[in-house]
Design brief:
homodimer, Tetracycline Repressor, domain 2, DNA-binding
Chain lengths: ~220, ~220
DNA sequence: CAAAATTAATCAAACGATTGATTAAGCGTA
DNA sequence: TACGCTTAATCAATCGTTTGATTAATTTTG
């Protein structure tokens, strides 16, 4: 049936996304992916033409969900810059930290930079989110809510970099935190709220003028 | 002569470091490395036992110098926790941001969790440095210089994560910063002091009690 | 010192294993 | 039967590694 076909392709894409994230593009062999997905090796080429086609399919499937993540927050006139940033942090932590394997995949391919066409596409997508956050922060500076000499580009590097460090190097952050961050319960009940609280307090301490230090 | 022998091994390590960084561990074949270095393929195994041995040799050569530097700072009794951290940031930025291709390599390999033996060794070596920084921060908390409720593990994620973001995704951070960070002059004269200033101000604002906010 | 013995360094060639990809035959359903 | 799906078998290419032979350097010996 048509429905089974779609479900099977989706299943392959799910598995491929995870395997690519774990092993990288080179490290993820077509045999490993097909084996993990429980399908014959030739099915990958049958459905997606080639390994690169499969990779592109994995990537493009995710594009839409990343497009609109922050835009509605940014354009909300009822919030000041800090409240928007607060909301951005909430959404980002909630959404990215939980489903992290695609982020790992993206970061690795961007840092590799040897597959030009694909890398350019990925960067273009990522920049949409980055510019959205940057715009919010600059709004805060212009409104006098944030320090005028705040280094916004580097704050962005901190916001996304801290998140990347946690999700991209789970073994290291697990050791530093004292818990396995791949544990679903710890992630949901402890790490997520903890990262939210930390990130807000950190950025507030650096960005916001005369904020309440006590809490 | 003895000197030539050493120089040759060092030359192979130099080339291997660059090729590994450009192509990744999987992407860098022993043939490419030996070809680029102008030596016979078998020399890699003769000198370093295996491809993995070569990689580890490249890795340990880089990490050792920084490790002793950190330990010297950490054990210096004449500085308080913040001054130590200040010095760590200076050294870290000066050292890592400039020579970044190796850091990209390390982060890429660690973020793949399925190459067990090699990844474990890398993590083990990296953690020495991470724990050193952690120890300094905890010292600051215990001495009452830093806020008692400071989330030290996440501060570490910020410190290393911000750096990683800048050096691992130069295309993105170049766009955010408005300059090509791969430009040597900009990197040395502007980015380095800027990151130092930012990192200290950020961590100070979050960590240190009753610091001077004005500057 | 010089010849012999030993060790270290280097090379081309080939190894078995694995890679991404393709093939032709078999399968189930319409 | 005819068609879309699935499979095992197989392809050439490349992988990291090993081999045996050869040369260069060093040490031992007479």
């Amino acid at each position: 049936m048509e429905k089974d076909k779609i479900d099977k392709k989706e299943h392959i894409l799910d598995v491929a996304e995870k395997v690519f994230a774990d092993l990288g593009y080179d490290g993820a062999s077509t045999r490993t992916i097909s084996g993990e997905a429980g399908v014959n090796m030739a099915m990958l080429n049958y459905y997606f033409g080639s390994k690169e086609g499969l990779f592109l399919a994995v990537f493009e499937r995710k594009i839409n969900s990343f497009r609109t993540l922050l835009q509605n927050i940014s354009s909300d006139g009822s919030m000041n810059a800090w409240d928007k940033l607060d909301k951005c942090i909430d959404n980002y932590v909630e959404r990215i930290i939980a489903n992290n394997c695609f982020q790992k995949l993206i970061n690795r391919e961007v840092s590799m930079n040897k597959r030009g066409d694909l890398t350019d596409k990925i960067i273009e997508i990522l920049m949409v989110n980055v510019y959205e956050v940057k715009r919010i922060m600059e709004e805060g500076v212009n409104n006098g809510l944030f320090h005028a000499d705040a280094d916004i580009p580097l704050v962005i590097a901190t916001l996304f970099g801290t998140k990347n460090y946690i999700v991209n190097m789970p073994q290291i952050s697990s050791l530093v935190l004292g818990h396995d961050i791949r544990d679903e319960k710890f992630m949901e009940n402890e790490l997520k709220p903890r990262v939210k609280t930390y990130m807000k307090r950190l950025l507030k301490a650096y960005l916001v003028k005369e904020h309440d230090n006590s809490k």
